[in-house]
Design goal:
- This protein has a single domain, classed as Alpha-Beta Barrel (TIM Barrel), CATH 3.20.20.80.
- The protein has 10 helices and 10 strands.
- The radius of gyration is 20 Å and the shape is globular.
- It starts with 7 loop residues before the first helix and ends with a helix.
- The relative contact order is 0.13.
- Belongs to the glycosyl hydrolase 18 family.
- This is chitinase.
- InterPro entries: Cts1-like, GH, Glyco_hydro18_cat, Glyco_hydro_18_chit_AS, Glycosyl_Hydrlase18_Chitinase.
């Protein structure tokens, strides 16, 4: 059968629409910064142009009557008021359109919430010391962060939903009247043991799911993308703004789950980008990303 010539105008229209559709799935990269002094400053991290979100990690002690403690290992000492200069870096990042969040929790620390009242106290502390409130003891100075990231790995699910509600209630308050953005970093087995109930609130803007250190739901070269795809489908059904694919930026960054850049681009991203909730990828961490250049390799496809 003889082929018909497609009018140039129609062809251009089809190509243009395809580009729009692809653009609708264009995502950003979220990175964790703060746990290795050899990863450069926060300002340098943002100036790289690679990231849309930076999670400053970690506030690793809080709740249950404990004095909250910030740990920016190797960068500065909050105990001697030595981290206020990081506040200038926060402002530098924000001037570039990058959202900077404080990550609370982490894999090592002493944290938890004993009651709804405790959750309210922690929310007030975060508001006064890192968000739009006022306090004489702000660890990062007068910088107003964009929100809070819940990296809760304690296994205790109690009252994190209350903390999310109290924090979100601070949106549009204070002199800057900023939205308080909420993010979470659950493990990929669904639902997450710690944050399952909190995520049901529908208050989280960004959810970067950790598809590593969890073999049943992560990508492997031998097993392919099926396990990850199944878990991803479950995660994209939660009532959240955007869902991100969380990965280690180097094989050494996690016990398992590293995905070669070529596999991410050719095999994994085409699957996860089908969801309208796809927001991009999250990487642990800036230190490892510098070692491998992972973001540089994959960003054009994210």
């Amino acid at each position: 059968m003889a082929s018909k010539r497609v009018p140039a105008v129609l062809l251009l229209t089809v190509v243009s629409l395809a580009g729009v559709a692809a653009g609708a799935r264009a995502g950003g990269v979220a990175i964790y910064w703060g746990q290795n002094g050899n990863e450069g400053t926060l300002a340098q991290t943002c100036a790289s142009g690679n990231y849309k979100f930076v999670n400053v990690a970690f506030l690793y002690t809080f709740g249950k009557g404990q004095t909250p403690l910030l740990n920016l290992a190797g960068h500065c000492d909050p105990a001697s008021n030595g981290c206020t200069s990081v506040g200038a870096d926060v402002k530098s990042c924000q001037s570039l359109g990058i959202k900077v969040l404080l990550s609370i929790g982490g894999g090592v620390g002493s944290y938890g919430l004993s009651s709804c009242a405790d959750a309210r106290l922690v929310a007030r502390y975060l508001w006064d010391n890192y968000l739009g409130g006022t306090s004489p003891s702000r660890p990062l100075g007068d910088a107003v962060l964009d929100g809070i990231d819940f990296d809760i790995e304690s296994g205790n699910s109690a009252h994190w939903d209350s903390l999310a509600k109290y924090l979100k209630a601070y949106s549009r308050r204070g002199p800057e009247r900023k939205t308080v953005y909420l993010a979470a970093a659950p493990q990929c087995p669904f639902p997450d043991a710690s944050l399952g109930e909190a995520l049901k609130t529908g208050l989280f803007d960004y959810v970067w799911v950790q598809f590593y250190n969890n073999p049943p739901c992560q990508y492997t070269t031998a097993g392919g993308v099926s396990n990850l795809a199944s878990a991803w489908e479950q995660w994209t059904r939660i009532p959240a703004g955007q869902v991100f694919l969380g990965l280690p930026a180097a094989p050494e960054a996690a016990g398992s789950g590293f995905v070669e850049a070529s596999d991410l681009v050719s095999k994994v991203l085409p699957v996860v980008k089908k969801s309208s909730k796809y927001g991009g990828i999250m990487l642990w961490s800036r230190f490892y990303d510098l070692q491998t250049g992972y973001t540089d390799k994959v960003k054009p496809s994210v």
